[in-house]
Description:
Blueprint: H1 10-24, E1 37-41, H2 53-71, E2 75-79, E3 81-82, H3 86-99, H4 104-107, H5 109-134, E4 144-145, H6 149-164, E5 168-178, E6 183-185, E7 190-205, E8 212-217, E9 228-231, E10 245-248, E11 253-259, E12 271-274, H7 280-289, H8 315-328, E13 332-345, E14 353-362, H9 364-376, E15 381-383, H10 387-397, E16 401-402, E17 404-405, E18 415-418, E19 424-426, E20 442-444, E21 448-449, H11 451-455, H12 458-461, H13 470-475, E22 478-484, H14 488-503, E23 508-514, E24 517-518, H15 535-542, H16 544-553, E25 561-562, H17 565-587, H18 602-623, H19 627-655, H20 659-680, H21 685-694, H22 717-740, E26 750-754, H23 757-762, H24 764-770, E27 776-779, E28 790-793, E29 797-801, H25 809-834, H26 837-842, H27 845-872
Parallel strand pairs: 1-2, 3-4, 9-11, 15-23, 22-23, 24-25, 26-27
Antiparallel strand pairs: 5-6, 5-14, 7-8, 7-13, 9-12, 10-11, 14-16, 17-21, 18-19, 18-20, 26-29, 28-29
Helix pairs in contact: 1-21, 2-16, 9-10, 9-14, 15-16, 16-17, 17-19, 18-19, 18-20, 18-22, 19-20, 20-21, 25-27
This protein binds one RNA strand through strand 8, strand 12, helix 7, strand 13 and helix 10.
Amino acid sequence: MKELPKVYDPKAVEKKIYDMWLQGGYFKGKIDPEKEPFTIVIPPPNVTGQLHLGHAFDETLQDVLIRVKRMQGYSALWVPGTDHAGIATQIKVEESLREQGISRHDLGREKFLEKVWEWKEKYGGRIVEQLKTLGSSCDWDRLRFTMDEGCSRAVREVFVSLYEKGLIYKGERIINWCPKCRTALSDAEVEHEEKEGKFWHIKYPVKDSDEYVVVATTRPETMLGDTAVAVHPEDKRYRHLIGKKVVLPLMNREIPVIADEYVDMELGTGCVKMTPSHDPNDFEVGQRHNLQQILVMDEEARINENGGKYAGLDRYEARKQVVKDLEEQGYLVKVEPHVHSVGSCYRCDTIVEPVTSPQWFVRMEPLAKEALEVVRDGRIKFVPERFVKNYTNWMENAHDWCISRQLWWGHQIPAWYCADCGHITVSREDPDKCEKCGSTNITRDEDVLDTWFSSALWPFSTLGWPDKTPDLEYFYPTSVLVTGYDILFFWVARMIFSGLEHTKQVPFRTVLFHGLIRDEKGRKMSKSLGNGVDPMEVIETYGADALRFNIITGNSPGNDMRYYNERCEAMRNFANKIWNASRFVLMNLTIGKNELPEKLELEDKWILSKLNSLAKEVNENIDKFELGIAANKIYDFIWDNYCDWYIELTKPRLNGEDEEAKIGAQKVLLYVLTETLKLLHPFMPFITEEIWQALPHEGEALMIENYPEFNEAIDFPEDEAKFEIIMNAIRAVRTRRAEMNVPPSKWPHLTIVTSKKDVFKAGLTYLSKLAFAGEVTITGTQPDVMEGLVGVITNDAKLYMPLAELVDIEKERERIQKELKTAAENLRRTESKLSNQGFLAKAPEEVVTAEKERAEKLRALIENLEDSLKALN
RNA sequence: GGACGAUUAGCUCAGCUGGUAGAGCACCCGCUUGACGUGCGGGUGGUCACAGGUUCGAGUCCUGUAUCGUCCACCA
């Protein structure tokens, strides 16, 4: 039999075990018509990124699910992959080039892209290796990348087909512009934050009149692009001005006063400046009134040539100057403090500028309809359910999705502009001429697609779509999508409508949302705060299993969790506990086969029955995605039931003379341990596999064994209850001894007075060993002489020990009186319940019965306590 | 302006469909108990944020309030 070291060393086994799994090919998803498929696609991490705790959370949940399903007999497939992460990656490469004093423009598009691919090759493997370190059982042969050939083809197909259906269009619209990344962003990519700002009230004089109107703005520099002032059509104050002109200060441009219902008469002065090129609302109004659009900023948000003397100034410089000039020229009425929401780029945190720009959009309304239905009617289930509301709200109000980005890294848009006729050719194959006029003078759109455009296709592009592959046929729709709630809109929503539109099926049946991992102060982990915890370091210190178990048990579905090293330490200790329990079993093992003995002792039945309930409950919890609860139950079973009780209980047999009893104990020890390792395996794959390999076994690997489930053959609820009676007695004696500071060397005679003599007889040896009893007498009648005896009372017995010399009478009296008091209080409450007619009439029978029993026991207890009190005198 | 989440032991968190509150860590008292001191036995500690309501019975369901947090919203 194999010797295990005294302390579990994860570093010595994790790598070895992982390689063994790879060798065995156990991660491979195989099409098997006999089996039901279970598929997960990984939320692809940034190809050049590093694993952080958020990933670790995500991957652990997925790995637990996929391992459980694999063991349950499904044909399990977990598709891994990485994301090209357009902006994020491009920024990184540009930064590294900048250190060498090079900009991407110096290199040109083609050379720059070469650099990015090099970068991808250099760092692309890192995160994959880190996923393996965690234990992820992905099918690595199917590793995908959002810009690999297949995914690119899927992107192209989707773009063209949506264009053909009129669901993708190009238009000049207001979009969010990031002046630092110099690209358009979608609404989802803008983070809004309430900020202290100012509200500037400005006079606009009415032309040929002494009158003026006052408008207010939070962004005075945009007035350079004002092309109208709007009032409400029914506003009596301004009705006479409608159709007249006002003179735009500083620019001296005459702009019309228009009437539009958009204006709220109650708000401010009731006059609104219109800047159609720099405000989404104004843009809408502008469309209705055919207003001129004047863009006053360039792509770095500096004032452009349309901004008169302010041209060249940065937007905030321009703001200062504009305000100063307005003030000097007497146009500034007042300045108020004002809190308003400011949007920033989610990648670089620069404040975005709403500007009009020609971009590509996906029309959301037609796509949203079914995407809403499938979630409402449960064809896609959200766990926890509350996220349905977020989703619905977003989907119902989603604006058209701006998908073009002014970047180089990504899927270039397959659209060609004809220089001769202006037609746009959108095509699956690169065209060499305009499809309309045949001119060869065509140029391809420079822009690339939003990263999330390709991610949206991930569940089916990774399975071979647009081809009708056997994989797609078998493994799609996928089963569960596991992801953080923070990318519900970015990704989950878009996968849903994309899946429906292109595959006519839901992309997944269930979405399991998890929260964010925060630092110990509850803050988001971020680079700028420097509070990030590197999972690789955690694994180095505590082992992957400890990290996984910490993450799984430390949270409830959908909620954020704080990361504590202390918890990892506790989980490492747990791993060590299992390790040593297994060592114990191994060093006592003389058998080579795992089977249950013919004859089972009471405690055997107890542990087997406990194990059986555990298996049942764990399966139920996992079905409901309550992974943390399942893991906790396994933890408790191993530590409390198996280690602290059962192992101790087997020692008399193992160390005794009776060969049959010895073998019997070994068999049950081995059986229960093996089943427990199976239950625990998905959560702590490495240590369980390592131990299993050291135990007598038949299969190749624990990870492909069958997951335990409820088994009638080891279900002994009555014996389980009987044994609990003995356990209670043992606990009561221990408590008593501890209270009285009885030295461990003292093993007094124990007299048990009980009506359940059989039960106690069956547990005789264990009573003496675990309750430190010298001799044990089991009787149905009270001892004749009570003097000098110390009593303990349980629900089923009175136990006496001759320990009088250790008793401090005063203390003892106090103790009993205290116990008496609580017992009396409990009895009072129980009796008041039982005298309540409503309770008797309406509570379920078993609750009433339980209450009656409780009352009886309390009465007996009180009687016993009173006797003991008397005996003290 | 909406929506959601949190509020339970000193700390971090569990607590499913309502039946007299749990874990880990911390703390206190014991223990060289032949698997494990990364351990063993015992223990202290909670009017489950607050106010109402439903119910025989409410951390658990309903309504409202407070504090903290998050998301959404075209709030000149």
